[in-house]
Design goal:
By secondary structure, this protein is an alpha/beta fold. The protein has nine helices and nine strands. It has a five-stranded parallel beta sheet with strand order 2-1-6-5-7. The radius of gyration is 23 Å and the shape is elongated. One of its GO terms (biological process) is tRNA N1-guanine methylation.
Length: about 260
């Protein structure tokens, strides 16, 4: 996969040189190219922002440098990239979206600063590229670079060959399937006792069927406790008898079990 990132702070992306993503780049699984937006300005101050029309606080990123930068990166490609613009007003970035992006051969990120990018940029490229405005949460950051880091890591780890154990993806919280809305349960490793805390005996039993059931039970209980809105979305028809028992245990008295 090719990933291009246009930013006024390309140095922000040094974390992409380490850990799984860094190894994926070394292996050639992920081709990340960074671009300085100011390279497409034409004044002595390399200006990328100006005051908003209609008044109001803050500054807005100018359309001219963004247009020139995107045109230069896309070039005459016969299969253009998918343009991703992080913004709190975009559709939520979820595991489902990460899986969708992981199927793309080329992503182009345009992280904004200040009050955002002049809206005409998205209107201009919507006719030529697939433009996605996405948000990683209901909060505002100083700029979109942190959001790009989140998205690239979430997508990059899904690419074939990036994770040493491909099963890790299938076991992720929010992984596709009948239990896609479940959080992962607690995890443990050696030693079996640490500071008086013991690993649950079932995990040491060697009974793989019982271990799988225990993990599923714990995932259900953790989801009910920490993300009740996810538990409420579970389709009871897709759950087994034990799943439904756990849901019923957590339901308040008099609640409709359907």
């Amino acid at each position: 996969m090719r990933v291009d990132i246009i930013s006024i702070f390309p140095e922000y992306f040094t974390p992409l040189d380490v850990s799984l993503i860094g190894k994926a780049r070394q292996k050639g699984l992920l081709d990340i190219r960074l671009h300085q937006l100011r390279d497409w300005t034409h004044d002595v101050h390399r200006t990328v922002d100006d005051t908003p029309y209609g008044g109001g606080p803050g500054m807005v990123m100018k359309p001219e440098p963004w247009g020139e930068a995107i045109d230069a990166v896309v070039g005459a490609a016969t299969t253009p990239p998918r343009l991703v613009v992080p913004t709190p007003s975009g559709r939520p970035f979820t595991q489902e979206v990460a899986l969708e992006y992981a199927k793309e051969p080329w992503l182009l990120f345009a992280p904004a600063r200040y009050e955002g990018i002049d809206s005409r940029v998205m209107a201009e490229y919507a006719s030529r590229l697939r433009v996605d405005e996405v948000g990683i949460g209901d909060y505002v950051l100083a700029g979109g670079e942190a959001a790009v880091l989140v998205i690239v890591e979430a997508v990059g780890r899904l690419l074939p060959g990036v994770l040493g154990n491909a099963g890790s993806v299938a076991d992720d919280s929010f992984a596709p399937g009948a239990m896609a809305d479940l959080l992962e349960g607690p995890v443990y490793t050696k030693p079996p006792v640490w500071r008086g805390h013991e690993v649950p005996p079932i995990l040491l039993s060697g009974n793989h069927g019982a271990i799988a059931r225990w993990r599923r039970d714990q995932a259900l209980r953790r989801t009910i406790a920490k993300r009740p809105e996810l538990a409420a979305r579970l389709d009871r028809r897709a759950l087994d008898k034990r799943d439904r028992e756990i849901l019923d245990e957590a339901a308040p008295p008099g609640a409709d079990p359907s």
